[in-house]
Structures
1.
Amino acid sequence: MTVDQLAEYIYKNREELLESLRNGTYRPQPVRRVEIPKPDGSTRKLGVPTVVDRMIQQAVVQVLSPIYEQVFSDNSYGFRPGRSAHDAIQSVTEL
């Protein structure tokens, strides 16, 4: 399914999808493995979730991030909005 097809899918399957999320029976589909070429000629494996699974992941992130972001240390940089490994290195360098 493409992103363009998602709206129609949700329209047709909304109640079933919501019910499976509510009652804990929702199971994400296996990710699709794609090999990404690297400059040295080798490849890197990348897992691509389905469009529905990615939408659900994003919905969960949008609800939980504001809650948990408040309790993270200011010295934490891993997987944080607006922060990167470069920011962590700059912070250490400044210290």
Note: The chain has a mean pLDDT of 93.
2.
Amino acid sequence: MYSSSDYSSLKYPDIAEELKIHLQSVKILHQQDLQKGYGSVYLPFALERKYPRAKYDWIWQFVFPSGSLSKDPRSGEVRRHHLHESSLQKALKQAVRQAGIQKKVGCHTFRHSFATHLLQNGYDIRTVQELLGHKDVKTTMIYTHVLNRGGKAVRSPLD
């Protein structure tokens, strides 16, 4: 297992910049859809009734849209839906295979990793419970066994 200090030498990409680039390409796709007579997204009935053109506005478009158009079963309108979760699952499975990782890894793995790292970084158990949406703190306590720090984990404010 790696400690957080093992990651200090890794170079992480600038996520904000990558997201801006991604959104620019999604906006171009949306503009192309509009030119072809598409480009709408589903909005709840009351919202669509109040703002009938809002479904075409850039602000309402999916951040991760599907690569293809499809017919909305409710309205019969052809539109681009969000990227299906199975696409991410398949991409992760392929990345794990290509990286040669011999462990079972799924999208839920990131949830466990997130919780564990929060606890490793000193966040209190109640905060982690709230972030994960656990009703009972006992469910969140499962993550504490991974830390395995014992009494040496207690740090004085003077340290």
Note: Residues 1-10 have pLDDT under 50 and may be disordered.
3.
Amino acid sequence: MSNKIQKKKIAANYKVKEPINNFKLRVKIVQQRPLLADLLENEGDTRDSNFLEEEDRIFSWQEKVFSPFEATFYNDESNCLTEQQKIYYQQIKENDIQGSQLYTYTQHDSYYLENELLTKPYKTELSIRNQNALPALQNRKPFHERYNKIVVDDTPNETRIRTNHYLYMERTTMYVMVDLSQRDKTLTSSDEDMETVLCVIMYDGLHKILSVDPDFTNEYFYTITNSNGVKFNYWIEHASEKQSSLELQQQQNELRREIKNRLMHKEAEISHGIQLTSSNVHKFFIKLDIISAHNFFFNGLSVSYHINLPQYWSIDQKDKLFGRTQMCNLKNNSAYFSYATEMMLESQLTDIFETKDTVPCWPKLLLSVTSFDSWSRYRTEGYASLSLPVLPGLYEFNISTWRPTGSIINTLRRFFTGGTLKLEDITYCSIPQGHEGKMLNKSQLTVTPSGYIKLNMNIVHQASPTKDNDQLEYFQRLSTDKFMTNIESIFEQFKAAREHMLRIKNLNM
């Protein structure tokens, strides 16, 4: 019964303990004999000689074996455009390669088993819902441009990355193919029988796992049929040679040296790519995590943030000063976002250090909470502002919010149809530009308290080593002087108002 039992095609995974370069695979394919072959005397005449009759070959790991079509195609230098194709052209010219019916595609070849992954756009259910969730705001980009995520990296057969809550896997792939086309037919790239997959081998170098699809046959065989109805049996066997302990030790030492050289090269690239800050620039790396919102009334909550930069401050070109979380419904009067973002701010310290007796304006985090329910009613739920911490470290905040209110008509409109009162300028929830150090009158603004926002903030400073101690000293003094300056400013304003009242009282007398 050996080699006469057909096996189902099921993949298998194997733990690899030796270097993957020692792996070898034997593939044998034989054309099936017709059912009436036993009645014929000459067995050799029972197979169709116009198709592949029998071939047996051993493949090493990532060994490139050319097909007859590839040998003809790469033999023409005008067809070779990429660097790898030019290498194939030199190999075929120097070794006079004619091609084999059993051939391979390695990680350097641009072959994909499923082209649908590259031709069809991939959209998650969350991205589709968020794209139509909130009404389009003026001067805002579409959702896919503001939150552009790479789903599949189109690097051929190398590292494929899925980001934004998708699978991440690093693997190397090798395909064992067979050419089942007619020998008297002119080969074209559109011939289906020219590229038939017999086996897919994937190696996960991180976990040392080798996947073989389909599995090794041993005493069984697999069956495949071409477009002309001709059937073939093929076998897949593990043909790796057993290495001695000395050879394995030498291979492991070479592998360690190769990994060490790669790490040293990568470290040199990273150190070369690090940009040192100039002596008059102080960088602030901010990691913002908007965790949740609590005690709001309506569903469909989202939180928008905006960084208000005063004079002498700037932001990196690739970062943005504003953003918005995803929508979230209330559960136990709480909405959980876990929205994380990061940005880098730069401060020009030349003018600041020249006038250390004054306290400069500090960046502020401005927040707004909105709701959008199933009836398409859009409401402003609250505003809040927070001065960014001066010193580096990890901070946790519970920020209370407020929202503007109007007459009873506005209250009814807010409940039934939405469209509530909102600020034309979000910086007005804090101190707008141009009003620093001046009396800002907000007495005509009627507000009511709303819920609160829970967020975490991690701040890292980067400065020039020469002035690092001076800057740290200055920021430590600034964190305490800022509070004292605010108190002194209040007392001065109270004193000026009291003197003004006394002058008016004396005039009336």
Note: The first strand starts at residue 5 and ends at 6.
